[in-house]
Amino acid sequence: MLLEVMLMQRTQIYLHPEQHRALLREAAKKGVSLAKLIREIIAKHLKEQARPVPAGKETFLKIVGMGASDKTDVSVRHDHYLAEALKGDNG
Question: Which of 53, 55, 73, 81 lies deepest, with the highest CB count within 10 Å?
Answer without folding.
Answer: 81
